[in-house]
Amino acid sequence: MMRLFSPRKTTLMFVIRDKTRTPLENLEPVLREDIQKIWDSVPKPQAHMETPLSEFFNVEVVALSSFEEKEELFKEQVASLRQRFYHSVAPGGLAGDRRGVVPASGFSFSAHEIWKVIKENKDLDLPAHKVMVATVRCEEIANEKYSSFAANEEWYELEAAVQSGPISSFGKKLSSILETCLSGYDGEVLYFDEGVRSAKRKQLEDKLLQLVQPAFQSMLGHIRSGTLDKFKDAFDKALSGGEGFSSAAHHCSKFYMNLFDEACADAVIEQANWDMSKARDKFQRDVDAHIASVRAAKLGELTAIFEAKLNESLSGPVEALLDGANNETWPAIRKLLRCETESAISGFSDALYGFDMDEETKEKMLASLENYAKGVVEAKAREESGRVLMRMKDRFTSLFSHDSDSMPRVWTGKEDIRGITKLARSASLKLLSVMAAIRLDDETDNIESTLTLALVDSRSNATTNRSITNHDPLASSTWEQVPSSKTLITPVQCKSLWRQFKSETEYSVTQAISAQEANKRNNNWLPPPWAIAAMMVLGFNEFMTLLRNPLYLGFIFIGYLLIKALWVQLDISGEFRNGALPGLISLSTKFLPTVMNLLKKLAEEGQIPATNNNPQRNPVRASMNHQNGVSTSEISSTASSGVTSSGNGTEYSSPRKEE
Length: 659
Prior knowledge:
68% of the residues lie in helices and 2% in strands. By secondary structure, it is an all-alpha fold.
């Protein structure tokens, strides 16, 4: 009424019977509050959304006394109320606002306009009786058929079966059940309004299709997963059989896409006009995703194989080349890297041919493999640079402690220790210069000359350098003409390593010098010339005495042999190499057993000739006396050379002829 006609004010009168002792002033606000809530909940046109209740209604609350208790008062109140109704159209009466009052002469026109508004408003356009009946009955029949379909045993079994797996002829079976349901509806609504029954049939069909759609989607899911599994198996078998990747992917995807289309056609419901392109596109994406994953896995395997080959073919040789660092180390490494990289790239390119990839992607993969080869060399160089100090000491030890024939050096006093040390340190410096930077770009640098000038030639040029400049060429963190990314050992680190290297190899040089001096002292047994001259002058009388009595010479010779035997037996020179005090202590423990052993040997040597010559003692006594000195010397010589060493367990003996 508010939307179609102008507002009219109406009086709402609430009459409360049999009023109790509760004052009307307490009851009226509660009643008005409930009415206001009803008004707020009523949907209103946009123009009257904020219009208050008082614009349309005049609410009054009247209370009447109890008829049983106050009959006279009740009748008076009713008579007064009746008078208000009698005079309701008077100004201020119950009829309320008179804005909508039309004169009697205009009633015909007013009624005509009201009817026109009612006809033009669709909300008030009620349908014909047969349409209303058809609507109600067709809807009832449709609901019955829907319930009958939902309880259909055949549909229930089909729905349960499709949850566990695909069903052959699913579309035909479900279409048949749907057609039976719709045919039953058509038979029962045959005589109702055609428009109504068609509309309700469409609604029933939509509801049935909405009911069976989850089962249909499950069927599509089984078809997609089953076909995809078959595709994966066939694709793997094709690749295992040696077929090219691109060819196998094309043939398998085409065959199983056709198989998927056939399976979907078998599952199509005749009553539904559902678009199958989305399901087909999803299956195509699954196939493409699997092909892409297998491609990535195969390419990853190929890359890993060729990277492993490069790692194996480069790591060991590069380590060996860096171990024997010289001027040809980096050229040899570059040559090795170039040969191995070209071989690997050639094989990798041939392996990529079957993947049918675009040229740009192929070039990127080949470039990545080439960079990996460089990375292997650089990583090995960085690894070896961390052990450069150990390798420098090994090279120094090898050159310093071994001769040109790789035999251990014996420091006899004739070797040029200074020259050997310089040669060994120069070779170690060469190793340091080679390991200082990565040189894979065939560019020259001055690292070796800088190190030589700063570390080897620094002493000889110290004065000149101090006079010219105070700049230290190694006081830097970078090399000239060498980028920091290619630097393995900075100049400052080289200086520190060289200082540590010299301090750790200084001991070997000192030991060699000490051994050389000790060897010289051991080999020089003659006294000084002045001592020899003094001995000749002061010992002239004793020398003449020896010449006058040759028997003294025999005793002196025998004493010399005994002393020589003791010297060899006790190894006096070897004992005193470790110091005077340890030598004296060792000799004191070995002296008495050695003397006893020597006397025993002399006794044994003296008994043998006596036994052999016993039968001839009397006839040739004079002859034996004539040869006594010679025999004694011979026995002493034999005894002195037949002494057994107790220190090292080795027995020294000279052969004696038996007659």
